[in-house]
């Protein structure tokens, strides 16, 4: 399993970091094709928009090009599909979720020298347009529409409850390691839903390169091992979680799982 350091991720664009992540999860990822397609589209955008008089017109043009002419859009019908989280699949299908669409859009915005940066808002990735001469604007990468603070506040209330307040920290620019970590969790969740346990295990192992002792990630890895019929390995991960988080409600249930998984001694041939 390939590991990544925070410094290595920060030296890449977000989409390049995601592509490396994708290839670590799925070795069949065509990195060459993705890079060639991104470069082709970037050159198209530069040809069409680089001559615009100012940043506002270039941004307006890129939004039109990305969502209208190229046809990128949020996948409303299969939002939780893993295809929406892999960069190569998003480029092929022109469908994705906020984090994948946003990362690709940021690649083109950077090529056009537009002041667009990623914000890891609690509910999803948001794009922040940090204008020099006026207040920032926020874009929903799922559909390319501008977001008001009222809408953002509504999203926050929907996630955290009626007392939630929109704070400045919610709208701060996020670094690549933070965003990649959240993206990895999305991919793992999608793969588990699809019962693709082999790839989900790669996600879990990769996540543990960021946080090697995370008991919750080790618990999740134990679940994956259990689905792969690696019962004793699963039991070891569960036991680690129980020892680290004895007061967690899941600990008592996992103790029962450990008894079942270790009921028969392994047979070595």
From TrEMBL:
It comes from the Bacteria. Residues 33-184 form the Protein SirB1 N-terminal domain. InterPro entries: SirB1_N (IPR032698), TPR-like_helical_dom_sf (IPR011990). It holds the Pfam family TPR_9. Belongs to the UPF0162 family. This is Protein SirB1 N-terminal domain-containing protein. It comes from Grimontia celer. The lineage of its organism: Bacteria, Pseudomonadati, Pseudomonadota, Gammaproteobacteria, Vibrionales.
